Amino acid sequence: MLDHPTGAGSEGDFRVDFDPRVRLEFHGSKISSNGGLLLFRELDEVLGLHDLAGQSLQDTRRGKNGVHSLVGLLRQSNFGRLAGYPDVNDAERLAHDPVMRQVVGGRAVDEWAASTSQMARFETDILTSAHNRAALADMPGQWIDALHDAQSPKWITLDMDSSVSPTHGDQEGTAWNGHFGCKCYHPLFVFNQFGDLERCALRKGNVHSADGWKEVMAPVIARYKKRDLMRFFRADAAFAIPELYEMLEAESYFYTIRLKGNAVLREAVSHLLKRPVGRPPNYVQRFYHDFEYRAASWAKARRVIAKVEWHPGDLFPRMGFVVTNLPMEPKWIIRFYNQRGTAEQHIKEGKYAINWTRLSCKRFRDNEVRLQLHALAYILGSFLKRADLPEEVADWSLTSIQSRLIKIGARVVRHARKITFQLAEVAVPRNIFGQILTAIRALKPPPRPT
């Protein structure tokens, strides 16, 4: 057997035929394709995010042989997902990645990050205890509170929506969902107007879209009760629930929630259902109607806004109804409600950038943990967009941030007293990288009064 493959200049190096000057070398533990993660590690440090997590989680390991701290394992789990590695099987190569080792900290800097078996035990054993699952569910809210301590918003708008996570095989809790046309889980999400994921919950595949809404919403409402700001809520017709209206009204939330049409509602807009007089124009004609309505299950009458649209070529009009307690003009209210579509975009970003539909464990509680870890990775990416970023990157989606900012090539050079990461200057020039770093440091909360 040859010691050197054909074309190799020396052991481990390769040459190519198209240009004899080119030599290929491999330095796995010195080169990384995830250089941008160092920015997010700085964001983590500025806001103290994983330190908060460490205060909430319980380490169930016995003995003193733990190589990596619980916080370090959580960092590896979350930053790995943010970089596009959604499975613990990826830990084997990430353990040698110099950027990941630096991000994890502790022993990983001078040795290796956690292996696949270590990460598997962390995610499917330590984190699946009842205490830690509850702590993980609360963690997005704690992280958002930490950011709001630095950047206090004047109002908060909450959007609630459900989604689909297709399943494969005989996974616990999976079921056929006729609406989505597949076997799946049916998670529930609450976002704010900044795109941050306030809270989420994994549910069985065959539950109603609004199932468990109270368990998800109540902790979010409780958190914002302590802050002096205006509060808004939006949701589609699946959440047209009298108990939800009453909760929102009691907590001083303004809301817009879509109503399914019925005979009484259609009768209220019957005067708008006749085709407008004259030649039909080549644009959409919109009409609004504002009226009081009380369903049989409601304790009182509420304001309903109707929108009727006549589209060119349509024989019948399209109509929609929104129940609200907002005092604004009908057109403004409908426009405000329509903005809830951004929640669907956030869900898509979570699917494509973080791959949070990858819930492939056998046990339901393991998949609950995976969804919460995906959520934390998503929040890390979302928080960067809250900083005062340079104009060149301010409008980047999470997918763009992942592919253009996180995926920066980096070479590590170690000296006795310092570690230097030499970053590729292609998608993100040096000056833009520096501006992003400055914007992250500006998020640091003011010191608490003693």
TrEMBL record:
InterPro entries: RNaseH-like_sf, Tnp_DDE_dom, Transpos_IS1380. Residues 15-444 form the Transposase DDE domain. SUPFAM superfamilies: Ribonuclease H-like (SSF53098). Transmembrane segments: none annotated. Pfam families: DDE_Tnp_1_4 (PF13701). This is Transposase DDE domain group 1. The lineage of its organism: Bacteria, Pseudomonadati, Pseudomonadota, Alphaproteobacteria, Rhodobacterales.
